[in-house]
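Ticket #4471: structure output looks truncated?

Reporter: J.K.
Steps to reproduce: submitted the chain below (147 residues) through the standard prediction queue, then opened the result file.
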Amino acid sequence: MNFKRNSKIILIEVLYFFLNLFQRKPKQHIIKGFLKKYPSSEYPVWHKSKDNSWQVSFNEDQHYGIAVFAEDGTWLGSRFFTQFLLLPQNVRGAFESQFNKESIMRVYALKFKKANIYEFLINENKKTERLLFTTSGLLLNSSILKS
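Returned output as attached by the reporter:
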């Protein structure tokens, strides 16, 4: 069991090493902003967006996340995979009162300076829908991604 786990860790570290060789990196003040916000992060992979912001995907405490930083180093927001049971009770209750829990494909926590939003990707009636809930359980948006 430990051999399998260690092999996976070694593979991840080798892949990370090669990714770092070829990726464009942001300026030092952006990297410092990221490390200040996520000091225990591992395996950051940077990508510059068309709007000149920087996206970084990373692992923190065994959770996969993506953070976005402005060109001046300001943190704009983050998106983390999460589990339904880890959501605030208001969000879980609001979801379950309107949708079938078994329809959930993925759940994300979107974190911003002034608010958190919870994103659900669900499959109902052979349609993939995207739902956005506030922390208080208010459904902000529902859109069909594909049918």
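Triage note (M.O.): checked the attachment and the full token line is present. The chain has two domains: 2-76, 83-146.
Status: closed, working as intended.
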